[in-house]
Structures are given as structure tokens and as C-alpha cells.
């Protein structure tokens, strides 16, 4: 079956050949075509070439256009460092003085930073393979993007002392997210949401509900209004906010390896599909194909019977140097188990 056929049939409870599987290939795609990660900057066609080649090599179920978490913040004025052959990182926030808060403006995804290049990559992937496989564009959610605009330490202080400024940062970030989501959908793809700083490893569940949840809900309401579903990934520990993530409107929860698929299934599996959660570093990067097979089987045993379904996946984006043989082992294991599953 083609990936779009498989996902559609799975959602309807119809016959499929295997569970959907998404080893979350990010900059590992650079290795597939033999280029350096830094070459992706400002080069939509190269990003598309790499992600298309990775999909064609491994045969997974969703193409995700993604290089780093900072594309929206950079488009709003943050300074991002691009190493020659490593994933980009935040060098400086958009503002260092809160007196300049009103200077922050929503980004134009067709003009600012690297957003136009990511949209170009999305368009190429959709044109090439959109009738065969789902293409998604990664969006950094409002609260996480807000932390890149002023810095994580400053945002933490503001939550305690000046919460109104946090809401202002989230509002302007949300507007960027809405504009970028609309552009992704107009390009024929689906937004894929990631919100690293909303993790319970970073902020409390109370802070999540106050500062992140309202903006996530408005973003997902917008996406649903455009006829698209929403997958939400929050890194680290999330058990205490699963109910809130569902309340926000997520159709699928991407579960990090720090969380339990079994617990998520019992807590919210009647309402949302689950995705995850093979360890991207300890297993996918550092393990052997045998380790990957064991971890993949464990993942399937835990959640293949989730009422709303399971997408077998890594717990987060794969490290750049993830061995190809390990990605292949994940896919081979899911194919061997089939559907209904046969252990």
C-alpha cells in the first residue's frame, strides 16, 4: 500500500498491510544525499531533495520538512547559528531588552528568514509525491517560539513576575504560527506541531495551562478549520498534561521516550491516536539493528491496541548520524509484524 492509502484505511478501520511507521528523519536526510547539514540553509530544493530521497530509501509513511526549531524565531529577528555540518542552534534571542517588546512583529512566511525556503521545499515534495505520501511542515508552537524571542531564562522569570508580557510574546508568536500554518496548507501539506519548551520537564502543568494551552488551542482550531488534523509533539515528560494536550485539540499525540505509551493509551487512547516512542539516541543512534528490533516490538506490544490507533515512531527527531541500518531495521520490523500484528 502507498502511505496515503495506508493512513486513510487505518483511520477507517479497513484492511491494511502494516502499522504506519515514521522514524522522524530530520537532518539525517542530509546523509542520504551526501551533503552537509549547513547546506540546507536558504536552499529549499536541497531540503526537498534530501527528504524525498530519505523517504524513497526507507519507505516510511510521512515526509516532514524540518531542519531546526528556530525558523520562525529567526524570521522574527532571533540570531541563529548554522554550523557547517550540525543542526542549527539559537545564538541570540530576537530582543535583549524588554523595552523593545513592542518591536516584535509576526513573520511573513513568504518573505522572512528561511521560511520561504521551507515552503519551497514543501511545495516541491507535494508536487513530486503528494498523491502518494503525506507531506508535513514543522511548526514551532507559540510558547516555545516565545522562549526563543527573549531567551528561556528571561521567559521563566517573566512567567513568575510579569505574566502579561509572556502572553504578549505568545500572541505575536501565535500570529506567526497562524500565518505559517496557512502557507503550509496552501502549499498542499499539513502542519506538524512541536512544542519542546511546554514539556513538564521544563515548566509546570499549571504554567502549561496558563501560558501554552490557550495558544495551542487557537492554533489547532485554525488548522481544523482548514480541514486538517493536528499532530502535537512535546518533548520529555508529558503525562501530567496529556489531558490538556487533548483539550487543545490534538488528533495525535507524539510521545517522547521519557513517557510511557502504555500509560498514554490508558489515559487518553480512547480520544487520540498515539505516535512514538523508540529512543532516538540510546536505541536509534547508539544501538544495533537487533536493539532497534527489540525496541520496535516493545513499542508495538504496548500500544498496537490503542483505541484510536498507533503510529510507530521514534520518540523525537533522529540525530543526524543515525545509522541507516537502524532506520531500515525499524521499518523491517513493522513490516514483519504486519496487521493484525503477529509477534
Compose a concise summary of this entry.
With 343 residues, this protein is an alpha/beta fold.
Overall description:
The protein has 343 residues and is α/β, with parallel strands linked by helices. The chain has one domain (3-337): TIM Barrel, CATH 3.20.20. It has helices at residues 3-12, 28-33, 44-58, 71-75, 115-129, 142-150, 152-161, 163-186, 205-225, 242-248, 261-268, 280-285, 289-303, 324-337, and strands at residues 21-22, 62-65, 79-81, 89-92, 134-140, 190-194, 231-234, 252-255, 273-278, 310-314. An eight-stranded parallel beta sheet has the order 1-10-9-8-7-6-5-2. The chain has a two-stranded antiparallel sheet with strand order 3-4. Strand 8 (252-255), helix 11 (261-268) and strand 9 form a beta-alpha-beta unit. Helix 3 (44-58) packs across helix 5 (115-129) and helix 6 packs across helix 7 (152-161). It starts with a helix and ends in a 6-residue tail after the last helix.
Amino acid at each position: 500500500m502507498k502511505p496515503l492509502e495506508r493512513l486513510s484505511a487505518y483511520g477507517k478501520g479497513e484492511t491494511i498491510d502494516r502499522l504506519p511507521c515514521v522514524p522522524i528523519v530530520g537532518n539525517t536526510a542530509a546523509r542520504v544525499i551526501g551533503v552537509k547539514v549547513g547546506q540546507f540553509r536558504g536552499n529549499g530544493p536541497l531540503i526537498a531533495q534530501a527528504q524525498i530521497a530519505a523517504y524513497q530509501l526507507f519507505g516510511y509513511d510521512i515526509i516532514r520538512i524540518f531542519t531546526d526549531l528556530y525558523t520562525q524565531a529567526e524570521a522574527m529577528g532571533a540570531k541563529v547559528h548554522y554550523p557547517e555540518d550540525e543542526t542549527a542552534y539559537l545564538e541570540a534571542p530576537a530582543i535583549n531588552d524588554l523595552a523593545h517588546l513592542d518591536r516584535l512583529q509576526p513573520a511573513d512566511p513568504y518573505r522572512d528568514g528561511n521560511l520561504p525556503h521551507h515552503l519551497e521545499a514543501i511545495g516541491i515534495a507535494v508536487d513530486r509525491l503528494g498523491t502518494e505520501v503525506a507531506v508535513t511542515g514543522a511548526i514551532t508552537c507559540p510558547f516555545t517560539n516565545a522562549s526563543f524571542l527573549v531567551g528561556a531564562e528571561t521567559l521563566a522569570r517573566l512567567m513568575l513576575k510579569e505574566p502579561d508580557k509572556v502572553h504578549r510574546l505568545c500572541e505575536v508568536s501565535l500570529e506567526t504560527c497562524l500565518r505559517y500554518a496557512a502557507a503550509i496548507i496552501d502549499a498542499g501539506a499539513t502542519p506538524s506541531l512541536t512544542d519542546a519548551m511546554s514539556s513538564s520537564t521544563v515548566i509546570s502543568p499549571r504554567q502549561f495551562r496558563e501560558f501554552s494551552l490557550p495558544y495551542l488551542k487557537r492554533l489547532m482550531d485554525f488548522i481544523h478549520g482548514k480541514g486538517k488534523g493536528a499532530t502535537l509533539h512535546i518533548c520529555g515528560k508529558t503525562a501530567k498534561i496529556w489531558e490538556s494536550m487533548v483539550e487543545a485539540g490534538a488528533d495525535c499525540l507524539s510521545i517522547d521516550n521519557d513517557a510511557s505509551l502504555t500509560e498514554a493509551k490508558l489515559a487518553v487512547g480512547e480520544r487520540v491516536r498515539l505516535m512514538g516512542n523508540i529512543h532516538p539516541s540510546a536505541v536509534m543512534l547508539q544501538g544495533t539493528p537487533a536493539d532497534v528490533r527489540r525496541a520496535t516490538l516493545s513499542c508495538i506490544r504496548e500500544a498496537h491496541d490503542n483505541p484510536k490507533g498507533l503510529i510507530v515512531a521514534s520518540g523525537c527527531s533522529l540525530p543526524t548520524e543515525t545509522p541507516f541500518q537502524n532506520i531500515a531495521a525499524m521499518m523491517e520490523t513493522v513490516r514483519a509484524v504486519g496487521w493484525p500484528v503477529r509477534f
